From TrEMBL, chain A:
Residues 6-100 form the Sulphur oxidation protein SoxZ domain. The lineage of its organism: Bacteria, Pseudomonadati, Pseudomonadota, Alphaproteobacteria, Hyphomicrobiales. This is Thiosulfate oxidation carrier complex protein SoxZ. InterPro entries: Ig-like_fold, Ig_E-set, SoxZ, SoxZ_dom. It comes from the Bacteria.
Automatic annotation (TrEMBL), chain B:
Coiled coil: none annotated. Residues 1-28 form the signal peptide. It catalyses: L-cysteinyl-[SoxY protein] + thiosulfate + 2 Fe(III)-[cytochrome c] = S-sulfosulfanyl-L-cysteinyl-[SoxY protein] + 2 Fe(II)-[cytochrome c] + 2 H(+); S-sulfanyl-L-cysteinyl-[SoxY protein] + thiosulfate + 2 Fe(III)-[cytochrome c] = S-(2-sulfodisulfanyl)-L-cysteinyl-[SoxY protein] + 2 Fe(II)-[cytochrome c] + 2 H(+). Keywords: Electron transport, Heme, Iron, Metal-binding, Periplasm, Signal, Transferase, Transport. Heterodimer of SoxA and SoxX. Pfam families: SoxA-TsdA_cyt-c. This is SoxAX cytochrome complex subunit A. Residues 181-287 form the Cytochrome c domain. Belongs to the SoxA family. It is found in: Periplasm. Its EC number is 2.8.5.2. It comes from Bradyrhizobium campsiandrae.
TrEMBL record, chain C:
This is Thiosulfate oxidation carrier protein SoxY. Pfam families: SoxY (PF13501). Residues 57-159 form the Ig-like SoxY domain. It comes from the Bacteria.
Length: 103, 287, 161
Protein backbone atom coordinates (compact mmCIF):
# COMPACT_ATOMS: atom_id res chain seq x y z
CA UNK A 1 0.00 0.00 0.00
CA UNK A 2 1.45 3.27 -1.07
CA UNK A 3 1.82 6.07 1.44
CA UNK A 4 -1.12 8.41 1.92
CA UNK A 5 1.31 11.32 1.88
CA UNK A 6 2.78 12.99 -1.19
CA UNK A 7 5.37 15.64 -0.55
CA UNK A 8 7.57 17.97 -2.54
CA UNK A 9 10.20 19.87 -0.61
CA UNK A 10 12.69 22.05 -2.43
CA UNK A 11 15.40 24.25 -0.96
CA UNK A 12 16.64 27.49 -2.49
CA UNK A 13 18.64 30.29 -0.83
CA UNK A 14 18.04 28.99 2.72
CA UNK A 15 14.27 28.80 2.14
CA UNK A 16 12.63 25.40 1.85
CA UNK A 17 9.23 25.30 0.16
CA UNK A 18 7.04 22.36 1.11
CA UNK A 19 3.91 21.17 -0.68
CA UNK A 20 1.93 18.23 0.63
CA UNK A 21 -1.09 16.33 -0.63
CA UNK A 22 -2.65 13.67 1.57
CA UNK A 23 -5.11 11.00 0.54
CA UNK A 24 -7.95 11.28 3.04
CA UNK A 25 -11.77 11.50 2.71
CA UNK A 26 -12.13 14.45 5.13
CA UNK A 27 -15.79 13.48 5.67
CA UNK A 28 -17.76 16.24 7.35
CA UNK A 29 -20.36 14.07 9.07
CA UNK A 30 -23.05 16.08 7.26
CA UNK A 31 -23.35 14.05 4.07
CA UNK A 32 -25.60 11.03 3.55
CA UNK A 33 -24.65 8.04 1.43
CA UNK A 34 -26.79 6.45 -1.31
CA UNK A 35 -28.80 4.54 1.32
CA UNK A 36 -29.65 7.73 3.17
CA UNK A 37 -27.35 6.97 6.07
CA UNK A 38 -25.10 9.69 7.42
CA UNK A 39 -21.42 9.18 6.67
CA UNK A 40 -19.70 9.79 10.02
CA UNK A 41 -17.18 12.58 10.33
CA UNK A 42 -13.69 11.37 9.46
CA UNK A 43 -10.99 13.97 9.14
CA UNK A 44 -7.35 14.69 9.84
CA UNK A 45 -6.95 16.75 12.97
CA UNK A 46 -3.24 17.27 13.14
CA UNK A 47 -0.48 17.33 10.56
CA UNK A 48 3.09 17.89 11.70
CA UNK A 49 6.31 18.65 9.86
CA UNK A 50 9.65 18.04 11.56
CA UNK A 51 13.07 18.77 10.15
CA UNK A 52 16.27 17.60 11.84
CA UNK A 53 14.25 16.70 14.92
CA UNK A 54 12.69 20.15 15.17
CA UNK A 55 9.04 21.01 14.59
CA UNK A 56 8.81 23.43 11.66
CA UNK A 57 5.07 23.64 10.94
CA UNK A 58 1.88 22.25 12.49
CA UNK A 59 -1.59 22.19 10.96
CA UNK A 60 -4.79 21.72 12.96
CA UNK A 61 -7.68 20.87 10.69
CA UNK A 62 -11.45 20.64 11.01
CA UNK A 63 -13.94 19.12 8.59
CA UNK A 64 -13.88 22.18 6.30
CA UNK A 65 -10.53 21.26 4.78
CA UNK A 66 -11.10 19.81 1.31
CA UNK A 67 -10.92 16.08 0.53
CA UNK A 68 -7.36 14.91 -0.20
CA UNK A 69 -6.05 17.96 1.65
CA UNK A 70 -3.27 20.14 0.34
CA UNK A 71 -1.04 22.60 2.14
CA UNK A 72 1.95 24.71 1.11
CA UNK A 73 4.35 26.57 3.39
CA UNK A 74 8.02 27.55 3.60
CA UNK A 75 10.63 27.60 6.33
CA UNK A 76 14.25 28.57 6.88
CA UNK A 77 17.21 26.70 8.29
CA UNK A 78 17.23 23.49 6.26
CA UNK A 79 19.41 22.46 3.33
CA UNK A 80 19.24 20.04 0.42
CA UNK A 81 19.45 16.43 1.58
CA UNK A 82 17.94 17.08 5.02
CA UNK A 83 15.15 14.80 6.19
CA UNK A 84 11.64 16.18 6.51
CA UNK A 85 9.29 14.03 8.58
CA UNK A 86 5.57 14.40 7.97
CA UNK A 87 2.94 12.78 10.17
CA UNK A 88 -0.81 13.05 10.55
CA UNK A 89 -3.49 11.79 12.96
CA UNK A 90 -7.23 11.82 12.33
CA UNK A 91 -10.28 11.91 14.58
CA UNK A 92 -10.59 8.10 14.51
CA UNK A 93 -7.05 7.73 15.79
CA UNK A 94 -5.62 6.55 12.46
CA UNK A 95 -2.23 7.94 11.60
CA UNK A 96 0.43 7.82 8.92
CA UNK A 97 3.90 9.23 8.46
CA UNK A 98 6.61 9.51 5.91
CA UNK A 99 10.06 11.01 5.58
CA UNK A 100 11.12 12.95 2.52
CA UNK A 101 14.50 14.27 1.44
CA UNK A 102 14.66 17.98 0.75
CA UNK A 103 15.66 18.46 -2.88
CA UNK B 1 -2.74 55.18 -59.67
CA UNK B 2 -0.57 53.19 -57.29
CA UNK B 3 -3.02 53.95 -54.54
CA UNK B 4 -5.90 52.55 -56.58
CA UNK B 5 -4.05 49.34 -57.23
CA UNK B 6 -3.26 49.03 -53.58
CA UNK B 7 -6.89 49.60 -52.70
CA UNK B 8 -7.99 47.05 -55.24
CA UNK B 9 -5.44 44.58 -53.97
CA UNK B 10 -6.60 45.29 -50.46
CA UNK B 11 -10.21 44.61 -51.21
CA UNK B 12 -9.30 41.52 -53.20
CA UNK B 13 -7.43 40.26 -50.17
CA UNK B 14 -10.35 41.08 -47.93
CA UNK B 15 -12.66 39.21 -50.24
CA UNK B 16 -10.31 36.23 -50.25
CA UNK B 17 -10.16 36.24 -46.48
CA UNK B 18 -13.92 36.49 -46.25
CA UNK B 19 -14.24 33.61 -48.70
CA UNK B 20 -11.72 31.57 -46.76
CA UNK B 21 -13.57 32.20 -43.52
CA UNK B 22 -16.98 31.39 -44.92
CA UNK B 23 -16.09 28.53 -47.21
CA UNK B 24 -15.44 25.63 -44.81
CA UNK B 25 -18.98 25.71 -43.53
CA UNK B 26 -20.40 25.82 -47.05
CA UNK B 27 -18.28 22.88 -48.09
CA UNK B 28 -19.07 21.00 -44.90
CA UNK B 29 -22.75 21.28 -45.61
CA UNK B 30 -22.35 19.85 -49.08
CA UNK B 31 -19.92 16.99 -48.54
CA UNK B 32 -19.16 14.25 -46.10
CA UNK B 33 -15.42 14.63 -46.11
CA UNK B 34 -14.22 14.22 -42.47
CA UNK B 35 -11.04 16.22 -43.04
CA UNK B 36 -13.06 19.22 -44.18
CA UNK B 37 -15.49 18.67 -41.33
CA UNK B 38 -12.66 18.73 -38.80
CA UNK B 39 -11.25 21.92 -40.27
CA UNK B 40 -14.63 23.64 -40.19
CA UNK B 41 -15.21 22.44 -36.63
CA UNK B 42 -11.87 23.84 -35.45
CA UNK B 43 -12.30 27.11 -37.34
CA UNK B 44 -15.68 27.63 -35.73
CA UNK B 45 -14.07 27.60 -32.27
CA UNK B 46 -11.00 29.56 -33.31
CA UNK B 47 -13.22 32.32 -34.71
CA UNK B 48 -15.71 32.29 -31.85
CA UNK B 49 -12.86 32.62 -29.32
CA UNK B 50 -10.11 34.58 -31.07
CA UNK B 51 -8.43 35.28 -27.71
CA UNK B 52 -7.96 31.61 -26.81
CA UNK B 53 -4.72 29.97 -27.92
CA UNK B 54 -5.47 26.91 -30.01
CA UNK B 55 -3.71 24.45 -27.72
CA UNK B 56 -5.58 25.95 -24.75
CA UNK B 57 -8.95 24.54 -25.84
CA UNK B 58 -7.95 21.20 -24.31
CA UNK B 59 -8.21 22.86 -20.90
CA UNK B 60 -11.99 23.03 -21.15
CA UNK B 61 -13.78 25.70 -19.14
CA UNK B 62 -10.44 27.06 -17.90
CA UNK B 63 -9.68 28.34 -21.39
CA UNK B 64 -12.86 30.44 -21.17
CA UNK B 65 -12.72 32.04 -17.73
CA UNK B 66 -9.80 33.87 -16.10
CA UNK B 67 -10.90 33.56 -12.45
CA UNK B 68 -11.45 29.82 -12.86
CA UNK B 69 -8.16 29.43 -14.65
CA UNK B 70 -6.32 30.87 -11.64
CA UNK B 71 -8.02 28.41 -9.29
CA UNK B 72 -7.10 25.59 -11.64
CA UNK B 73 -3.45 26.59 -11.93
CA UNK B 74 -3.33 26.74 -8.14
CA UNK B 75 -4.71 23.19 -7.98
CA UNK B 76 -2.33 21.96 -10.69
CA UNK B 77 0.60 22.72 -8.35
CA UNK B 78 -0.35 19.46 -6.67
CA UNK B 79 -3.28 18.14 -8.66
CA UNK B 80 -6.11 16.04 -7.21
CA UNK B 81 -5.58 13.28 -9.80
CA UNK B 82 -2.10 12.61 -8.40
CA UNK B 83 -3.21 9.54 -6.43
CA UNK B 84 -5.07 8.01 -9.39
CA UNK B 85 -2.03 8.61 -11.57
CA UNK B 86 0.29 6.85 -9.11
CA UNK B 87 -2.15 3.96 -8.75
CA UNK B 88 -2.40 3.68 -12.55
CA UNK B 89 1.34 3.58 -12.96
CA UNK B 90 1.61 0.79 -10.40
CA UNK B 91 -1.28 -1.18 -11.92
CA UNK B 92 0.20 -0.82 -15.38
CA UNK B 93 3.49 -2.31 -14.23
CA UNK B 94 1.93 -5.16 -12.22
CA UNK B 95 1.78 -8.45 -14.18
CA UNK B 96 -1.46 -10.41 -14.61
CA UNK B 97 -1.73 -13.88 -13.07
CA UNK B 98 -0.33 -15.34 -16.31
CA UNK B 99 2.77 -13.16 -16.05
CA UNK B 100 1.91 -10.87 -18.95
CA UNK B 101 1.30 -7.13 -18.56
CA UNK B 102 -0.74 -4.37 -20.15
CA UNK B 103 2.37 -3.38 -22.06
CA UNK B 104 2.14 -6.66 -24.01
CA UNK B 105 -1.27 -5.64 -25.41
CA UNK B 106 -0.29 -2.26 -26.84
CA UNK B 107 2.06 -0.79 -29.43
CA UNK B 108 5.18 0.76 -27.86
CA UNK B 109 4.38 -1.00 -24.58
CA UNK B 110 1.40 1.32 -24.10
CA UNK B 111 3.60 4.36 -23.47
CA UNK B 112 2.87 7.60 -25.32
CA UNK B 113 0.07 6.21 -27.47
CA UNK B 114 -3.06 7.86 -26.03
CA UNK B 115 -3.27 10.22 -29.03
CA UNK B 116 -3.98 7.28 -31.37
CA UNK B 117 -7.20 6.27 -29.59
CA UNK B 118 -9.90 5.55 -30.52
CA UNK B 119 -8.99 3.81 -33.77
CA UNK B 120 -11.09 2.06 -36.38
CA UNK B 121 -10.49 -1.68 -36.41
CA UNK B 122 -11.09 -2.93 -39.93
CA UNK B 123 -11.26 -6.56 -38.80
CA UNK B 124 -14.05 -5.91 -36.36
CA UNK B 125 -15.54 -3.15 -38.48
CA UNK B 126 -15.94 -0.96 -35.40
CA UNK B 127 -14.32 1.79 -33.38
CA UNK B 128 -12.04 0.60 -30.56
CA UNK B 129 -11.50 3.00 -27.67
CA UNK B 130 -8.64 2.92 -25.18
CA UNK B 131 -10.99 1.86 -22.38
CA UNK B 132 -12.31 -1.00 -24.51
CA UNK B 133 -8.79 -2.05 -25.50
CA UNK B 134 -7.76 -2.12 -21.83
CA UNK B 135 -10.60 -4.40 -20.83
CA UNK B 136 -10.03 -6.63 -23.85
CA UNK B 137 -6.41 -6.89 -22.79
CA UNK B 138 -7.54 -7.99 -19.33
CA UNK B 139 -9.98 -10.55 -20.68
CA UNK B 140 -7.45 -11.93 -23.17
CA UNK B 141 -5.18 -12.56 -20.19
CA UNK B 142 -7.82 -14.25 -18.06
CA UNK B 143 -8.65 -11.25 -15.87
CA UNK B 144 -12.12 -9.88 -15.16
CA UNK B 145 -12.91 -6.59 -16.91
CA UNK B 146 -13.06 -3.36 -14.90
CA UNK B 147 -15.99 -0.97 -14.58
CA UNK B 148 -15.74 1.47 -17.45
CA UNK B 149 -16.68 4.56 -15.51
CA UNK B 150 -14.18 5.11 -12.71
CA UNK B 151 -11.61 3.81 -10.25
CA UNK B 152 -9.21 1.33 -11.88
CA UNK B 153 -10.16 2.23 -15.45
CA UNK B 154 -9.70 5.92 -14.68
CA UNK B 155 -6.33 5.24 -13.04
CA UNK B 156 -5.06 3.19 -15.98
CA UNK B 157 -6.17 5.70 -18.60
CA UNK B 158 -4.80 8.55 -16.43
CA UNK B 159 -1.37 6.95 -16.53
CA UNK B 160 -1.54 6.22 -20.27
CA UNK B 161 -2.66 9.81 -20.98
CA UNK B 162 0.08 11.19 -18.76
CA UNK B 163 2.77 9.37 -20.75
CA UNK B 164 1.30 10.96 -23.89
CA UNK B 165 0.97 14.54 -22.66
CA UNK B 166 1.75 17.12 -25.29
CA UNK B 167 1.45 14.64 -28.17
CA UNK B 168 -1.00 15.78 -30.79
CA UNK B 169 -4.26 13.92 -31.21
CA UNK B 170 -3.80 11.78 -34.30
CA UNK B 171 -6.94 9.87 -35.21
CA UNK B 172 -7.05 8.14 -38.59
CA UNK B 173 -10.08 7.38 -40.71
CA UNK B 174 -8.97 4.53 -42.96
CA UNK B 175 -10.24 4.14 -46.50
CA UNK B 176 -13.14 1.95 -45.43
CA UNK B 177 -16.77 2.93 -45.87
CA UNK B 178 -17.54 1.52 -42.39
CA UNK B 179 -15.00 3.88 -40.83
CA UNK B 180 -16.57 6.82 -42.60
CA UNK B 181 -19.96 5.58 -41.48
CA UNK B 182 -18.77 5.39 -37.84
CA UNK B 183 -17.57 8.99 -38.06
CA UNK B 184 -20.87 10.14 -39.58
CA UNK B 185 -22.81 8.19 -37.00
CA UNK B 186 -20.85 9.81 -34.16
CA UNK B 187 -21.41 13.23 -35.69
CA UNK B 188 -25.14 12.55 -35.96
CA UNK B 189 -25.26 11.45 -32.32
CA UNK B 190 -23.42 14.62 -31.30
CA UNK B 191 -25.84 16.96 -33.08
CA UNK B 192 -29.11 15.14 -32.34
CA UNK B 193 -31.37 16.56 -29.64
CA UNK B 194 -32.63 14.11 -27.03
CA UNK B 195 -33.94 13.82 -23.50
CA UNK B 196 -36.58 15.80 -21.63
CA UNK B 197 -34.53 18.98 -21.94
CA UNK B 198 -34.21 18.41 -25.68
CA UNK B 199 -30.49 19.17 -25.75
CA UNK B 200 -27.91 17.82 -28.11
CA UNK B 201 -24.25 17.59 -27.10
CA UNK B 202 -23.73 20.57 -29.42
CA UNK B 203 -26.40 22.71 -27.73
CA UNK B 204 -24.04 23.16 -24.79
CA UNK B 205 -20.55 22.43 -26.07
CA UNK B 206 -20.72 24.12 -29.50
CA UNK B 207 -23.32 26.84 -29.06
CA UNK B 208 -22.50 27.94 -25.50
CA UNK B 209 -18.95 27.18 -24.33
CA UNK B 210 -17.79 29.64 -21.70
CA UNK B 211 -21.34 30.40 -20.63
CA UNK B 212 -22.89 29.18 -17.43
CA UNK B 213 -25.50 26.48 -17.30
CA UNK B 214 -26.83 26.84 -13.79
CA UNK B 215 -23.60 27.17 -11.83
CA UNK B 216 -21.19 25.50 -14.20
CA UNK B 217 -19.11 26.97 -17.00
CA UNK B 218 -19.49 24.90 -20.16
CA UNK B 219 -16.42 23.42 -21.82
CA UNK B 220 -15.88 23.76 -25.58
CA UNK B 221 -16.40 20.53 -27.53
CA UNK B 222 -13.12 21.11 -29.31
CA UNK B 223 -10.46 19.15 -27.43
CA UNK B 224 -12.86 18.05 -24.70
CA UNK B 225 -11.59 14.45 -24.78
CA UNK B 226 -7.90 15.42 -24.87
CA UNK B 227 -8.04 16.02 -21.10
CA UNK B 228 -9.62 12.68 -20.17
CA UNK B 229 -9.81 11.08 -17.73
CA UNK B 230 -10.66 13.86 -15.28
CA UNK B 231 -10.89 14.43 -11.57
CA UNK B 232 -14.13 16.36 -11.06
CA UNK B 233 -14.68 18.17 -7.79
CA UNK B 234 -18.37 17.55 -8.36
CA UNK B 235 -17.72 13.79 -8.35
CA UNK B 236 -15.09 14.02 -5.61
CA UNK B 237 -13.18 11.61 -7.78
CA UNK B 238 -12.04 10.42 -11.17
CA UNK B 239 -14.15 9.68 -14.22
CA UNK B 240 -13.49 8.22 -17.66
CA UNK B 241 -14.79 9.23 -21.09
CA UNK B 242 -17.59 6.66 -20.57
CA UNK B 243 -18.58 8.39 -17.34
CA UNK B 244 -18.52 11.79 -19.01
CA UNK B 245 -20.90 10.67 -21.80
CA UNK B 246 -23.26 8.99 -19.35
CA UNK B 247 -23.49 12.03 -17.07
CA UNK B 248 -23.96 14.34 -20.06
CA UNK B 249 -26.94 12.24 -21.09
CA UNK B 250 -28.48 12.07 -17.65
CA UNK B 251 -27.95 15.80 -17.05
CA UNK B 252 -30.09 16.56 -20.08
CA UNK B 253 -32.54 13.96 -18.78
CA UNK B 254 -31.93 11.55 -21.60
CA UNK B 255 -31.54 7.83 -20.99
CA UNK B 256 -27.81 7.07 -20.94
CA UNK B 257 -26.48 4.20 -23.04
CA UNK B 258 -24.37 1.37 -21.73
CA UNK B 259 -20.67 2.29 -21.47
CA UNK B 260 -18.91 1.49 -24.75
CA UNK B 261 -22.20 1.20 -26.68
CA UNK B 262 -21.63 1.61 -30.43
CA UNK B 263 -22.99 5.17 -30.39
CA UNK B 264 -20.62 6.23 -27.60
CA UNK B 265 -17.69 4.65 -29.42
CA UNK B 266 -18.68 6.51 -32.58
CA UNK B 267 -19.15 9.86 -30.87
CA UNK B 268 -15.74 9.43 -29.24
CA UNK B 269 -14.32 8.73 -32.70
CA UNK B 270 -15.94 11.88 -34.09
CA UNK B 271 -14.93 14.14 -31.19
CA UNK B 272 -11.36 12.85 -31.16
CA UNK B 273 -10.93 13.13 -34.92
CA UNK B 274 -12.09 16.77 -35.01
CA UNK B 275 -9.53 17.51 -32.25
CA UNK B 276 -6.65 16.18 -34.38
CA UNK B 277 -3.60 18.38 -33.94
CA UNK B 278 -4.46 19.49 -30.42
CA UNK B 279 -2.28 18.15 -27.59
CA UNK B 280 -3.21 15.44 -25.11
CA UNK B 281 -3.53 17.13 -21.69
CA UNK B 282 -4.98 14.33 -19.58
CA UNK B 283 -5.41 13.50 -16.85
CA UNK B 284 -7.29 16.69 -16.13
CA UNK B 285 -8.96 18.43 -13.18
CA UNK B 286 -12.39 19.99 -13.55
CA UNK B 287 -14.87 21.77 -11.21
CA UNK C 1 2.89 8.27 15.68
CA UNK C 2 0.14 6.44 17.46
CA UNK C 3 -3.39 7.27 18.38
CA UNK C 4 -2.89 9.60 21.31
CA UNK C 5 -3.08 13.24 20.35
CA UNK C 6 -5.30 14.02 23.29
CA UNK C 7 -3.76 12.41 26.34
CA UNK C 8 -6.52 13.76 28.59
CA UNK C 9 -9.84 12.25 27.56
CA UNK C 10 -11.53 13.57 30.66
CA UNK C 11 -10.36 17.09 30.00
CA UNK C 12 -11.83 16.94 26.51
CA UNK C 13 -15.16 15.69 27.84
CA UNK C 14 -15.28 18.51 30.33
CA UNK C 15 -14.46 21.07 27.66
CA UNK C 16 -17.15 19.73 25.36
CA UNK C 17 -19.64 19.94 28.18
CA UNK C 18 -18.65 23.52 28.85
CA UNK C 19 -19.06 24.48 25.22
CA UNK C 20 -22.53 23.01 25.07
CA UNK C 21 -23.49 24.99 28.12
CA UNK C 22 -22.11 28.12 26.52
CA UNK C 23 -24.11 27.56 23.35
CA UNK C 24 -27.34 26.94 25.16
CA UNK C 25 -26.72 29.79 27.55
CA UNK C 26 -25.24 33.19 26.92
CA UNK C 27 -22.58 32.56 24.33
CA UNK C 28 -20.04 33.53 26.94
CA UNK C 29 -17.46 30.94 27.76
CA UNK C 30 -17.74 30.26 31.45
CA UNK C 31 -14.07 29.46 31.86
CA UNK C 32 -10.86 31.26 31.10
CA UNK C 33 -10.18 30.89 27.36
CA UNK C 34 -7.94 27.93 26.67
CA UNK C 35 -5.69 29.80 24.21
CA UNK C 36 -5.44 26.61 22.26
CA UNK C 37 -3.42 28.17 19.49
CA UNK C 38 -0.76 29.12 21.96
CA UNK C 39 -0.16 25.59 23.19
CA UNK C 40 0.18 22.23 21.52
CA UNK C 41 -3.27 20.71 21.95
CA UNK C 42 -5.75 20.19 19.15
CA UNK C 43 -8.32 22.99 19.68
CA UNK C 44 -11.34 20.71 19.67
CA UNK C 45 -13.67 23.23 21.27
CA UNK C 46 -12.90 26.02 18.78
CA UNK C 47 -13.55 23.68 15.85
CA UNK C 48 -16.96 22.76 17.25
CA UNK C 49 -18.32 26.30 17.58
CA UNK C 50 -20.70 27.58 14.91
CA UNK C 51 -20.20 31.30 15.25
CA UNK C 52 -17.06 32.89 13.86
CA UNK C 53 -16.49 35.46 16.60
CA UNK C 54 -16.94 32.82 19.28
CA UNK C 55 -14.57 30.45 17.50
CA UNK C 56 -11.90 33.15 17.25
CA UNK C 57 -12.34 33.87 20.93
CA UNK C 58 -12.15 30.20 21.87
CA UNK C 59 -8.99 29.77 19.82
CA UNK C 60 -7.12 32.93 20.76
CA UNK C 61 -8.94 34.47 23.73
CA UNK C 62 -9.01 37.90 22.13
CA UNK C 63 -10.47 39.82 19.22
CA UNK C 64 -8.57 40.76 16.07
CA UNK C 65 -8.16 44.12 14.38
CA UNK C 66 -8.14 44.43 10.57
CA UNK C 67 -4.70 44.82 9.02
CA UNK C 68 -3.59 45.82 5.55
CA UNK C 69 -0.36 43.90 6.12
CA UNK C 70 -2.20 40.66 5.43
CA UNK C 71 -2.81 39.58 1.86
CA UNK C 72 -5.62 37.07 1.63
CA UNK C 73 -6.02 35.41 -1.73
CA UNK C 74 -9.28 33.62 -2.55
CA UNK C 75 -11.38 33.41 -5.71
CA UNK C 76 -14.27 35.80 -6.29
CA UNK C 77 -16.46 32.91 -7.42
CA UNK C 78 -15.47 29.46 -6.27
CA UNK C 79 -15.57 26.97 -9.15
CA UNK C 80 -16.87 24.40 -6.68
CA UNK C 81 -17.39 24.81 -2.94
CA UNK C 82 -15.77 21.42 -2.37
CA UNK C 83 -12.31 22.73 -3.27
CA UNK C 84 -11.65 26.43 -2.76
CA UNK C 85 -7.99 27.46 -2.92
CA UNK C 86 -7.27 30.02 -0.21
CA UNK C 87 -3.86 31.41 0.71
CA UNK C 88 -2.40 34.12 2.86
CA UNK C 89 0.87 36.00 3.09
CA UNK C 90 1.77 38.74 5.53
CA UNK C 91 4.49 41.29 6.17
CA UNK C 92 3.76 41.25 9.91
CA UNK C 93 6.67 40.31 12.19
CA UNK C 94 6.89 37.49 14.73
CA UNK C 95 3.98 35.49 13.35
CA UNK C 96 3.15 32.48 15.52
CA UNK C 97 -0.09 31.29 13.93
CA UNK C 98 -2.45 31.76 10.99
CA UNK C 99 -6.07 30.50 11.00
CA UNK C 100 -8.87 30.42 8.45
CA UNK C 101 -12.53 30.96 9.20
CA UNK C 102 -15.54 30.56 6.88
CA UNK C 103 -18.39 32.46 8.54
CA UNK C 104 -21.28 30.63 6.84
CA UNK C 105 -19.94 27.10 7.24
CA UNK C 106 -21.62 24.82 9.83
CA UNK C 107 -18.49 25.37 11.95
CA UNK C 108 -16.63 28.59 11.28
CA UNK C 109 -13.05 27.50 12.03
CA UNK C 110 -11.61 25.61 9.05
CA UNK C 111 -7.89 25.33 9.70
CA UNK C 112 -5.28 26.67 12.08
CA UNK C 113 -1.53 26.63 11.45
CA UNK C 114 1.28 27.10 13.96
CA UNK C 115 4.55 28.67 12.88
CA UNK C 116 7.53 27.85 15.07
CA UNK C 117 10.66 30.02 14.68
CA UNK C 118 12.03 29.96 11.17
CA UNK C 119 8.79 29.43 9.31
CA UNK C 120 7.87 32.00 6.67
CA UNK C 121 4.48 33.54 7.59
CA UNK C 122 2.53 32.30 4.57
CA UNK C 123 0.32 29.32 3.89
CA UNK C 124 -1.84 28.00 1.04
CA UNK C 125 -4.57 25.41 1.45
CA UNK C 126 -7.89 24.22 -0.03
CA UNK C 127 -11.11 24.62 1.93
CA UNK C 128 -14.72 23.52 1.67
CA UNK C 129 -17.43 26.16 1.59
CA UNK C 130 -21.08 25.30 2.10
CA UNK C 131 -22.33 28.52 0.50
CA UNK C 132 -21.42 32.11 -0.31
CA UNK C 133 -19.55 33.51 2.67
CA UNK C 134 -16.81 35.73 3.94
CA UNK C 135 -13.45 34.03 4.44
CA UNK C 136 -11.31 35.47 7.21
CA UNK C 137 -7.62 34.94 7.84
CA UNK C 138 -6.44 35.61 11.38
CA UNK C 139 -2.76 36.24 11.94
CA UNK C 140 -1.27 36.09 15.42
CA UNK C 141 1.85 38.23 15.50
CA UNK C 142 3.87 39.33 18.51
CA UNK C 143 0.99 38.33 20.78
CA UNK C 144 -1.57 40.45 18.92
CA UNK C 145 -4.34 39.39 16.55
CA UNK C 146 -4.90 40.77 13.05
CA UNK C 147 -7.43 39.89 10.38
CA UNK C 148 -8.22 40.17 6.68
CA UNK C 149 -11.51 39.21 5.09
CA UNK C 150 -12.70 38.47 1.59
CA UNK C 151 -16.10 37.48 0.19
CA UNK C 152 -16.26 34.36 -1.90
CA UNK C 153 -19.34 33.50 -3.94
CA UNK C 154 -20.23 29.83 -3.99
CA UNK C 155 -22.63 28.52 -6.61
CA UNK C 156 -22.05 24.81 -6.04
CA UNK C 157 -21.83 24.06 -2.32
CA UNK C 158 -19.12 21.84 -0.91
CA UNK C 159 -20.94 20.20 1.98
CA UNK C 160 -24.06 18.65 0.47
CA UNK C 161 -24.39 15.28 -1.25
Amino acid sequence: MASSIRVRATSKDDITEVQTLIQHPMDTGLVKDAKGETIPAHYIQELKFECNGKEVFVANWGTAVAKDPYVKFSFKGAKKGDDLKISWTDNKGTSDETTAKIA
Amino acid sequence: MKLRILLLLGSACAALVAFALASPRVIAADTVDPATDAKAFQNFFFQKFPGVKHEDFVNGPYSMNEDMKRQWLEKEEFPPYEFALDAGKEMFATPFKNGKTYADCFPNGGIGIRQNYPYFDSKEGKVVTLELALNRCREANGEAPYSYVKDEMASLTAYMAFTSRGKKMDIKIPDDPRAREAFENGKRYFYTRRGQLNFSCASCHVQSPGERIRAEVLAPALGILNAMPIYRSEWSGMGTISRRFITCNSQTRAVPLEPQADEYRDVEYFLSYVANGLPISGPGARP
Amino acid sequence: MTTTTGPHPTRRLILQGAVSVALIGLGNLPFAPALAAANDKYPDEAFKLKNEAEAIKALYGKTPEPSDKIKLDAPEIAENGAVVPVSVTTTLDKVTSISFFVAENPNALAASYRFPDGAIPAVANRLKMAKTSSVTAIVEADGKLYSATKDVKVTVGGCGG
